[in-house]
Amino acid sequence: MTDNEKTSLKNQAQDLIKIFNEKEDTETAVLKMADYIISNKEEAEALKSWMKEHEFFTSPASTCFHGNYKGGLAEHSLLVTVQALKLALPVLENYEECKGTENEYPVTAEDIFISCITHDFCKAGLYNSDFRNVKDENGNWVKTECYSVRYDNRNLGHGNESVLRLLECMPSLIKKRYVIEAVSRHMGFSDLAPMESKNFSVFLQNPLVILIQIADETAAAWYDC
């Protein structure tokens, strides 16, 4: 990265984090950040429309793990975005120092926002809302809302389904292979078919893959979101 690219990334990341820190509701923050950072305004509108139409802002992030409540998917995706923006410069600078590369992966704040906010698009509309009986602190049975996976949902796999949905909104990203790889491989070794695992280390050469994995894991493990 050139000094100008580093400065641009730093400033834009700070501006996006500032929007997050305004403490507005999750949907408002995500949409404001999209308006600010996505340069292709037609695709930005398509992305925002997709999120509204496919239950992105109301779906949980899981059935029983992090973000297992209404709106958990959007909250998790937003926090992953913020974590990645905070960690971006140290990770990218360290990558270039270790690899001795220059502009092999021209990662921008826009790339980070798009890959993080869409990394779990596969979960939008994936769950059914249901109720189950559980005991409260007094030992009484109470009806509690829960979620289960819709087994009629057509899904090509965690990362790859998210890529497909992203490209429906933003087809120009087909030219940014490193962004596609980051979304597709954000689960690391835990979401691979046997044949895919044989060359997974190649994807770890892409610093955006590493960055989104770190952001995803810290958002879930450190912030329980």
Describe, in plain words, how this protein is organized in 3D.
This protein has 225 residues and is mainly α. The protein has ten helices and two strands, in the order H-H-H-H-H-E-E-H-H-H-H-H. Strands 1-2 form a two-stranded antiparallel ribbon. Helix 1 packs antiparallel against helix 2 and helix 7 (177-184) packs parallel to helix 10. It is globular and about 60 Å long. 38% of the residues are buried.
- Tell me the strand percentage band: 5-15%
Instruction: Report the mean per-residue pLDDT as an integer.
Output: 85
**Treating each run of at least 4 consecutive H or I residues as one helix, how many helices?**
10
Major sheet: order of its strands? 1-2
- Overall strand count: 2
Shape: globular
Oligomer: single chain
Query: Which residues form runs of ≥5 with pLDDT under 50?
Result: none
Q: In which range does the helix fraction lie?
A: 55-70%
Major sheet attributes: 2 strands, antiparallel
| Ends distance | 31 Å
Structural class: mainly alpha
